[in-house]
Write a structure and sequence with these properties.
Length: 100
Amino acid sequence: MKSEAKLQTKVIRFLKDNERFVIKTQGGTPGTPNGTPDVITINRQGKLLGLEFKRPDGKGIVSPEQKAMGAKIRDNRALWFVIDSWEAFEEVWDIGSTSV
């Protein structure tokens, strides 16, 4: 399993273990637009979090479609983050858990 997939699996497991709403998406499949975040979850305050996962080695590239979708999510007062490490997720989760 690739390191990006391992990180994503670890985050999804954490979210499910903590009884959080979580959807794993596959952008570009029928009904899912290109650029859709890899994982969609909701924090305790009801705020949507879009999580786009990239390789921990820093070589992952955020596509123009992903950036545009992230901007659309943020324009709608939700949160969107690029996650490339467990530590980055922990920071985002802390932000996401307290943002209103």
